[in-house]
Amino acid sequence: VVPAAAVALPRPQVRARAAPQERRRRVAPLTAAAPTRAGDEPLLRGIFEIGKRSCDVVLSGRQLRWSPILPESPAGDSSVALQAEEEIIEMKDVFSVKLKRRRFAGQKKGGTLLGITIFKCLNKEENKLTDCAIHLNNLSEDHCQSWFRHLKEILNGFPNRPKSLKVFVNPSSHKREATHIYYEKVAPLFKLADIKTDVTVTEYEGHALSVLKECELQAFDGVVCVGGDGSVSEVAHGLLLRAQIAAGKDTDYVSKPVRAPVPLGVIPAGTTNILAHTLYGIKHTVTATLHIVMGHIQAVDVCTFSTPRKLLRFGFSAMFGFGARTLALAEKHRWMPSSQRKDFAFIKTLADLKPEECELSFLPLQILQEGSHEKDKISLLYLGSKDQWQKIQGHFLNVSIMAIPCLCSMAPRGLAPNTRLNNGSMALIVVQNTSRAEFIKHLKRYTSVKNQFNFPFVETYTVREVKVQPRLKSGPDTKTNVCLNAEGLYLWNIDGDLMKEASEVHVRVHPQLIDLYGVNTDDLESSQATCNCI
């Protein structure tokens, strides 16, 4: 560790006999006269021990830079100085800074100061984030306190980074591991980043929704859900419903909803975790947590699902037909292990494959792509007014309506690969009646890079509104309406949550209605698959 006297120097010194030009060469990377951007001006400079080497360290608003202080060659050879490699940390990648102290067992406060530890978010391959620590050792209390204050000021200046979060944990999701995931992996990172949390472990379906209706959301910078797709959908619905109530909107009919007041974070702890995969490109607890800690915000489109009489819920995607029946059967066998339950429901529904007769009305969109750069601008052209709806009627095995790409491990390109998180459109995917063998071929395509829509019985549309009107058969064949349950209600799979409804369902997309912690999957390296099917 460098003696305290050394850190009082305004800049590192070398032996007196060293040539002036040699001294300039050694610090040239730190004092170059090149033009500097705002925030690049040095704020502090000092000496710390990093990795058992004494280093010249410079802090600016954008970067923390250091290079080893090299011993001088006895012969005055300056080639040794050229071996000093400067290392740089971007301050936007730092999420915490702590004073490092040595304490005895059981000692909670005080202790011998050893220096400063900086915690950085490291972007590894395959979209995975992790945290790493850099130790800046110095025994001077005043010196370290000064650096600590400046570092904290820089971190506090980054926007969108939460200081207080409302957390919902669903202990029943998937393998009942959500509680363990939160307290063992998520909570320590929140504490490290000095984020205060208020945790609710949900006890029944709808618990999070009831809490959100009464919660003082202005006390929090964001809301986090630890659970599966159904839990996340419930919290998102609760946030948006609370926003409509606060704005004085009629919650029975919401034509132009207001945005959610705070961002929503998703910690994957379910079976498929579609929303987490879509936001992060991977199911990884630490990655999801660090996106929240770093304040990575992504505006996302949301759908409203309603009947002619009332608003049913807010959501991101829905399936009617095969996808809904599979979920309903899985829910009936909750006593089975999650993976077995899912496989059983899928195989049983596939064995009993039957079409559903319904009428689909939709208001189409045309996506206009401009430019030839990597990040082309995408704009939407509304085709016609409300009296120019298009209709199709027939027997369909499955109908999917999705406002987001819906990535998951079983569909790495997404269930709707040409949809975007926030371009104000929905994908309407209609699978007409066909043989079981052909339908299985279509389903297998989701797991590959091939176009899953390249079948004559699959139709895709880009839309902004959809109305689904099931046609109830009359007479002795009434029971052949396979989407009807025992109560005479039609089954819907909305974000992995089962919904039952007796009448027509009207689906509208509302652009960028909620902010989610995460990134746009278009920017993720592993999600750059292209598709011209929609």
UniProtKB/TrEMBL annotation:
- InterPro entries xrefs: ATP-NAD_kinase_N (IPR017438), CERK_C (IPR045363), CERK_PH (IPR057465), Diacylglycerol_kinase_cat_dom (IPR001206), Lipid_Phosphate_FormReg (IPR050187), NAD/diacylglycerol_kinase_sf (IPR016064)
BP-aspect Gene Ontology terms:
sphingolipid metabolic process
Spell out the SMART domains in the cross-references: DAGKc
Look up the record and report any one GO term of the cellular component aspect.
Answer: membrane
What's the domain of life for this entry?
Eukaryota
What PANTHER family does the entry give? CERAMIDE KINASE-LIKE PROTEIN, SPHINGOSINE KINASE
Q: What is this protein called?
A: CERKL protein
Q: Which organism is it from?
A: Elachura formosa
| Gene field | Cerkl
